[in-house]
Design a protein that fits this description.
By secondary structure, the chain is of the alpha+beta class. The protein is built from 17 helices and ten strands. A six-stranded mixed β-barrel has the order 2-3-8-5-7-6, surrounded by four helices.
Length: 454
């Protein structure tokens, strides 16, 4: 053990008549520990929110979306999707239609995003259909796909859209049976196209599996009486619960063929979605797909679509670090006061050491070592406490949230080792800076002046 560190550790163990100095030193250690623990917990929470939102977004939506610049729909999409799915880094592709609609059940109505898709492709680019908790998404599979399964992927996708028979030919009631009979009503309901709703939307509409909802499209038809909105009745076959309020409260899924018929799109789709092998390279891959698709197409990726959200999270992380870091500054002031009082108390001891040949640099290093030792002990305790709190909070979900406000129902904790490293360096650096003035003052003591009246 070096001379300076040996003396520093001796000074930290206050004698009985120096109890006040020991209390100040203890407060300094506790202050550093509290600041470090607060920073670890705060960084774990902000990182948890970012990771949770990112995982939910990437699990619910595609990595890249390709659509027409003029928003006039994509024609001959099976061949285009088949060609683009062979591009490097592309894992899967899926056709889709997105439109704003009004979904109503009795007197209750809500605006929604209606997504028309083919389930066997949709499951390859997103996980929302896998989160169906009530009912099943199986009825969303288009009928007549038995022959299509043996065809190439692009032809199968094309055939699956065209193979659904019109609603008017599905499960017609017997002509001799009363249209008001229970069997006739059940047949008409069974003949309705299926729809899967989000949990919160279903709760707001009062819909359950088997309920009938009315879907109204703002893209109406022109009649002598003006523009009349298009509408169709759908049968609720499933309710999904992703845990992400934005999707659970405003999204609904139908078959691609039913969406095309409702919106009068023919064999057009509005977007081709892609899943890639590296989510952080989605930007360059989207440009690659855009070039491969040809003129008139544009591609957006998940980072661009949620740019404002993740920028706000990064800004919140910086502000949190600055505000919570002030606790460490307060602890550094305690270290400063503690060392100043130590220098005043140990003036005679310092003079004796210097008269025995101790150099000024050694005296300065002595008090620097004492302050850094206080900071190191406090930092170590703070890291242990902070990571323990983060583990308990993340493992047991002890802090509940309102999903209507925060999109998730608990506070996520995701501590990272690199955050602990930066926080430890920050705390020790502040502790070192706090020692500069007291150590300089101690090294300037003149032995003759200090011992003149002893």
């Amino acid at each position: 053990m070096r001379f300076e560190l040996f003396i520093a550790t001796r000074y930290l163990r206050a004698k009985r008549r120096q109890t006040f100095l020991g209390i100040i030193t203890g407060i300094s250690i506790v202050g550093v520990a509290a600041g470090v623990a607060s920073l670890v917990v705060a960084m774990a929470i902000t990182n948890g929110f970012r990771q949770d939102l990112q995982q939910r977004l990437l699990g619910s939506t595609s990595h890249i979306s390709l659509q027409r610049v003029a928003d006039d729909g994509i024609k001959d999409w099976p061949s285009l999707m088949d060609r683009l799915s062979k591009q490097p880094h592309v894992v899967a592709a899926a056709p889709a239609i997105f439109e704003q609609v009004l979904i109503a059940r009795g007197p209750r109505a809500r605006g929604a995003v209606l997504k028309g898709m083919i389930p066997r492709y949709e499951r390859k680019v997103g996980d929302l259909l896998n989160s169906v908790k009530k009912g099943s998404a199986a009825p969303l599979e288009d009928t007549g796909n038995t022959e299509a399964e043996s065809q190439p992927e692009s032809k199968a996708a094309d055939k699956s859209v065209r193979s659904t028979p019109p609603e008017s030919t599905q499960a017609l009631p017997d002509a001799n049976e009363s249209p008001d009979s229970l069997a006739a009503v059940q047949q008409r309901v069974a003949a309705m196209p299926p729809i899967v709703l989000g949990k919160d939307m279903a709760d707001n509409l009062g819909a359950t599996v088997g309920s009938v909802v009315l879907v109204v499209s703002p893209q109406g038809e022109l009649t002598p009486f003006g523009t009349v909105p298009k509408y169709n009745r759908f049968r609720v076959v499933g309710i999904f619960n992703s845990g992400f309020f934005d999707y659970d409260s405003s999204w609904a899924f139908v078959r691609l063929s039913d969406a095309q018929r409702l919106f009068g799109l023919g064999d057009f789709i509005s977007v081709i979605e892609f899943k890639v092998d590296d989510i952080y390279q989605a930007g360059p891959i989207s440009h690659q797909l855009e070039d491969a698709a040809g003129k008139g197409f544009m591609a957006t990726n998940w980072q661009e679509q949620n740019k404002a959200l993740f920028h706000a999270l990064r800004l919140e992380r910086l502000v949190t670090f600055i505000t919570i870091g002030l606790i460490v500054f307060v602890a550094a002031l305690n270290i400063l006061i503690s060392l100043i009082m130590m220098v005043m108390e140990k003036t005679k001891d310092i003079a004796v050491l210097m008269s025995m040949g101790t150099r000024r640099a050694q005296v300065r290093n002595l008090f620097i070592a004492q302050g850094v030792l206080i900071g190191t002990i406090g930092t170590a305790l703070g890291l242990v406490l902070g990571y323990a709190i983060s583990y308990v909070g993340g493992h047991y979900h002890v802090l509940a949230l309102s999903p209507e406000v925060y999109s998730i129902d608990y506070v996520p904790f995701a501590p990272r080792a690199v955050d602990g490293l930066w926080i430890a360096l920050f705390a020790v650096l502040i502790s070192f800076i706090a020692t500069l003035y007291p150590s300089w003052s101690a090294s300037r003591i003149l032995p003759a002046e200090a011992l003149r009246y002893e």
